[in-house]
Amino acid sequence: MSRRTWSLFLLCGFLWGIPYLLIRVAVRDFSPACVVFTRVAIGSVLLTLIAVKQRTFMVALRGYKYVALYALTEIIGPWFLITRAELDISSGLAGLLVATVPIWSTIFASLAGDKTVWHHKRLVGMLVGFIGVFALVGIESFSHKANIWAILAVLLAAIGYGFAPNTIIKNLPGVSAIAINAIAMAMAAIVYLPFAYLQWPQHHIAMKSMLSILALGIFPTALAFIIFFALVDEIGTARASLVTYVNTAFAVFLGVILLSEPITTGILVGLSLVLLGSFLASQKPSTA
User: What is the pLDDT of residue 117?
Assistant: First the structure.
């Protein structure tokens, strides 16, 4: 890859690795609903401006039924689950659990007709990844008394992340991903608006929390999508998706460095197995 491509790749990995850190700070003053609403409202405005300029907004809007399903499983559900879970678990653990997305994506792709999932390398990847998840959940739950329901909530969010793109690929092929995400975020903002209004904090809001919630909307929600799609244009979706593994590393290390979160045995064991399993599960067999 060129220097520009590597720069885009690492920048995207960083931007999608920081949400867990920012969420962990934001929930100190804001409810999960307030965090999600502010995040998607900012992201929707920024992405809509780009989609309108590219004249792709109306094309995506015609597929609103499929965009709504995507919004539910990619944004509305997962972002609330992850935000709520981070009241009880570390940002690094949340990021690691989300690294299981390629495994779930592989399973859903198989159900949609992609039989390459039965290739031995991908099967081994799924097995290794699931062992990593079970090891992580078991060690964290019993050794460090992490909240099992919070862990399962993030795993459910990861399943949603794995399901959502398959819906768009199947039903809206060729439609601008920026436009789709702009509309999906607007839908999510409408859903969370009344909850955010009722739960908006009445106490003094710390500057760190305010800056974190604003940064969530600008950087990992809007800017990261723009950079990711520029990366896809250069190296394709398959190779660009490997940024998932970089996200996880950033999430874990930022939590340790900036929030003084511990590097537990569960994270060390789970990180190795989940990343290895996800990498293998996301591979397609050679056609040589």
Answer: 63
Walk along the chain (288 residues) in steps of 10 and give the mean pLDDT of each run: 83 90 94 96 96 95 96 95 90 82 80 72 77 72 72 93 85 92 97 97 94 95 88 68 74 84 79 77 60
Contact in structure between 184 and 72 (CB atoms under 8 Å): no
Angle in degrees, 0-180, between the axes of helices 91-98 and 120-142, rounded to the nearest 10: 160
Matching residue, tokens 């409202």? 41
Q: How is residue 196 written in tokens? A: 């955010």
- Measure the CA–CA gap between 206 and 161, rounded to whole angstroms: 31
In this prediction, residue 246 carries a pLDDT of 76
Residues 61 and 186: beta-carbon distance below 8 Å: no
CA 268 – CA 246 distance, rounded (Å): 15
Ramachandran sector of residue 236 (left: φ over 0; alpha: ψ -120 to 50; beta: rest):
left
pLDDT of residue 1: 63
- Give the global pTM: 0.83
Domain boundaries, the chain: 3-281
What pLDDT score does 288 carry?
46
Contact yes or no for 172/60 (Cβ under 8 A): yes
Neighbour-count burial for 9-39, b at 16+ CB within 10 Å, e otherwise: bebbbbbbbbbbbbbbbbbebbbbbbbbbbb
Nearest by Cα to 136 from 282, 281, 263: 263
How many angstroms separate the Cα of 11 from the Cα of each of 72, 77, 243, 246, 252?
A: 27, 26, 10, 10, 16
Q: Which of 65, 100, 40, 86 is nearest to 248 (CA)?
A: 100
